[in-house]
Design a protein that fits this description.
This protein is an alpha+beta fold. The chain folds into 2 domains: about 130 residues; about 140 residues, Heat Shock Protein 90, CATH 3.30.565. The chain is built from 6 helices and 5 strands; from the N terminus they run H-H-H-H-E-H-E-E-H-E-E. It has a 5-stranded mixed β-sheet, with helices on one face. Strand 4 and strand 5 form a beta hairpin. Helix 4 packs parallel to helix 5 and helix 5 runs antiparallel to helix 6. The radius of gyration is 33 Å and the shape is elongated. It starts with a helix and ends in a 13-residue tail after the last strand.
Length: about 280
């Protein structure tokens, strides 16, 4: 009887030990699988981040190439065509040296072409280097842009600039904010069908940041966030993100279909201590 009880006790001990061993093995296996899953997720996130950074870099390159093609096209179509016509007119003058009427006519045509060429050169130069921004500052430049875009529209634009008027931001920051504001305004006027726009630029003294707030009540779009594969962003939004990143800033963009768009941007506040320097696009 005692022998049977000892065997049962040993059996129970072995069974308990086996159960404990299986439990430990299960825990070890669970931890191993969980760690591998975490590692796989980390690798996947790193790959996504790398792909996103590469896409952002490629986007910046695409933006520059698009600008270069546009400038080249403008030079070819406008300036090149005008200079070719002037060359033809100059040849005609030599051929009609005895006909005063034809000479006067060709001279008038040449003057018209020269004036048009000057206007085209100014237009291209203004796109590359906004003269208003350089000479009069960010607030006046954005106001001018709003007036240009809203010339024949009925959209209500509420624009406020809280940066002290006696201070000028560093040239790179002013130009970046100007380009961002212009891109957002362009997108609203072209696609959003909005009747109200709010644009605010503030200096946050405590954090030494410039805050740019933009909102419209247009048709919006399905935005899942920068870097999200489900988000389809055009070159304009990628350009904005690239400019913010170049300034070590932060951007938060919210948009839903039929609910407009809201953008909040924070960039370092760097003010000039001396006279305003030449802008670089």
């Amino acid at each position: 009887m005692e022998r049977t009880e000892e065997i049962n006790l040993i059996f129970l001990l072995l069974l308990g030990s086996g159960g404990m061993l299986l439990l430990v093995l299960a825990i070890v296996l669970f931890v191993f699988i969980y760690q591998r899953k975490l590692l796989a997720q980390k690798i996947n996130l790193q790959a996504m981040e790398k792909n996103y950074q590469q896409a952002l870099l490629q986007s910046s390159i695409d933006i520059m190439e698009t600008e270069r093609r546009r400038i080249a096209q403008d030079l070819h179509d406008e300036i090149g065509a005008s200079l070719t016509a002037l060359k033809i007119y100059s040849g005609q003058i030599a051929q009609t040296a005895d006909n005063q009427t034809d000479i006067i006519k060709i001279n008038q045509q040449s003057r018209t072409l020269i004036e048009k060429t000057i206007q085209n050169v100014r237009s291209i130069t203004r796109d590359l280097l906004p003269a208003t921004l350089e000479h009069f500052g960010l607030e006046i430049a954005i106001q001018e842009t709003i007036e240009q875009l809203n010339h024949q529209a009925t959209t209500q634009v509420i624009f406020s600039n809280q940066i002290p008027k006696e201070q000028r931001l560093a040239a790179t920051i002013e130009l970046a904010i100007y380009r961002i504001a212009r891109e957002l305004l362009n997108n609203t006027y072209r696609y959003a069908q909005a009747n109200r726009i709010t644009l605010e630029i503030n200096h946050l003294a405590e954090s030494q940041e410039i805050r740019v707030f933009y909102q419209d009540n247009g048709k919006g779009f399905d935005f899942q966030g920068f870097g999200n594969p489900k988000t389809k962003t055009g070159i304009g939004l990628r350009s904005i993100e690239a400019r913010v990143n170049a300034l070590n800033g932060k951007i938060d963009l919210q948009s839903q279909i039929d609910k407009g768009i809201t953008v909040e941007i924070f960039v370092p506040a760097i003010f000039l201590n001396s006279s305003f320097t030449t802008l670089n696009a």
